[in-house]
Specification:
Distance between the termini: 37 Å
Largest sheet: none
Number of helices: 14
CATH architecture: Orthogonal Bundle
Order of helices and strands: HHHHHHHHHHHHHH
Radius of gyration: 23 Å
CATH class: Mainly Alpha
CATH topology: MetI-like fold
Number of domains: 1
Strand content: under 5%
Length: 277
């Protein structure tokens, strides 16, 4: 009887997970198949199979009507700069909170965590005034700095848990060997929490790639736009041409999907690492 119960339970869990997987995959597959169809095909039967996968006019039209390469390069540049700044702040802060002892350390950590629950839209007006005062509106640094700043609390939360799992004896032995704070960070701490750094970077990159609000408000010229903002423009321009619209959405969604697929092992290691001490 217990064996039968275990089989039924496992079957139920697999069925539920399969439903979640199907719900997650369906929009992606719908965009993929629709991008290979003409408007006439879609109008006749929105759910039909594409007549031919050699029809790539929708993709050609995207490159012809939008500077897709420039949009991708913009987005990648902004994300790379934001990731570097975020890690330069988050890694030392996480190490200090996890391993160093200083006044109000716990209060500081709780304040950082509490800031994670504040909606980002709450800061839009103060951020705009601040960036305007520094003449950074319609400048890439407005988006880069805001992305980096908003990612720090979550990054510190995860990385402090990972850093806390490092043996104190290792840290003390490094100090005894004469290593200063920066040598300890570069030679000991960072190599041991690489999975966590990669994990939080993946989370941040996908969040920034999909972010529409900040780039839409702070980047006003077409030359500075990100891919996500351009897709919002596509929605307005091709609201009746669904195959073209699905093509734009697919091109914007593919990079974060591929990141998760190829780096999923780092995500698992980074999340599990902080749970085991």
């Amino acid at each position: 009887m217990p064996k039968t119960t275990a089989i039924v339970t496992r079957t139920g869990v697999v069925a539920i997970l399969a439903l979640f997987a199907a719900a997650a995959l369906y929009p992606i597959l719908f965009m993929f198949f629709t991008s290979f169809r003409t408007s006439v095909e879609y109008t006749n039967n929105p759910l039909a199979w594409p007549q031919s996968f050699t029809y790539v006019e929708n993709f050609v039209s995207m490159f012809r009507n939008f500077d897709v390469i420039h949009l991708f390069l913009n987005t990648i540049l902004y994300i790379a700069l934001a990731a570097v700044i975020s890690l330069l702040v988050s890694v030392p802060a996480a190490f200090a909170i996890a391993k160093l002892r200083f006044p109000f350390r716990r209060l500081l950590f709780m304040t950082i965590i509490a800031s994670m629950v504040i909606p980002a839209i709450t800061f839009i007006i103060p951020d705009y005034i601040l960036m305007s005062d520094f003449n950074l509106v319609d400048n890439l640094w407005s988006v880069v700095l805001l992305w980096a700043a908003t990612s720090v609390p979550g990054s510190v939360f995860l990385l402090s848990a990972l850093t806390r799992s490092l043996p104190n004896e290792l840290v003390e032995a490094t100090k005894v060997d004469g290593a200063n704070y920066f040598h300890m960070m570069i030679r000991v701490v960072i190599p041991m929490i690489i999975p966590g750094i990669v994990t939080i970077t993946i989370f941040n990159v996908t969040t920034w790639w999909n972010d529409l609000l900040i780039p839409l408000i702070f980047l006003q010229s077409d030359t500075n736009k990100t891919m996500t903002v351009a897709v919002a423009t596509i929605v307005g321009r091709y609201s009746t041409d669904y195959p073209q619209l699905m093509t734009g959405l697919l091109m914007a969604a593919l990079p974060p999907i591929l990141i998760y697929i190829f780096l999923q092992s780092y995500i698992r290691r980074g999340i599990v690492m902080g749970a085991v001490k």
